[in-house]
């Protein structure tokens, strides 16, 4: 922060609004002064700072609905984040994360999870069991495969653009709410797009630009006709 008086002003405002925004404040840790109003906050925005970890003190912010920690230098998120059971939006974009704590599974209210532009090499299984999750963004990571646990996912949209995927997992067929799957800019051969995924899944928007096959090759795959029918039907509903 620039100075103590500036932080005091932010705290006084947050007491009335439930929102505190401390982006671009050169912070290396969550200011201790926020502890006195932690129970009042609904939104905590600490994007674009120099945070390297989120420690156990995050558990004090138990009424948060939105937590923005994007554009920091995070390598570690404490298990205490699992205490934020009212959290609906968690933004961890553009950090240095390679893994998530198992306690993330306790975020029963979470609807949006942004993990793009990190260092994940493995699809984090913790996101698969979040019952109210609608959108998970894992774009711009280094993910090479999708685990079987994805079958438990309740998300309607999964973004895996710009990863290192060479194969998919037919367990995606069991994702009953999955409508949008983004796979642009990976390393997929057309054989990775299997008949079960095309014919039997609920996916109605499959985005696969800039992989190792052409649209014509995809259209020739078994099951593409069924996928095309779902895509067209959904498009008509939006008109």
UniProtKB/TrEMBL annotation:
Task: List the GO terms this entry assigns under cellular component, sorted alphabetically.
Answer: cytoplasm
Highest taxon of source = Eukaryota
Gene3D superfamilies in the record = Ribonuclease Inhibitor (3.80.10.10)
Query: What are the entry keywords?
Result: Leucine-rich repeat, Repeat
The record lists the organism as Aceria tosichella
Lineage in the entry? Answer: Eukaryota, Metazoa, Ecdysozoa, Arthropoda, Chelicerata
Listed name of the protein: Leucine-rich repeat-containing protein 57
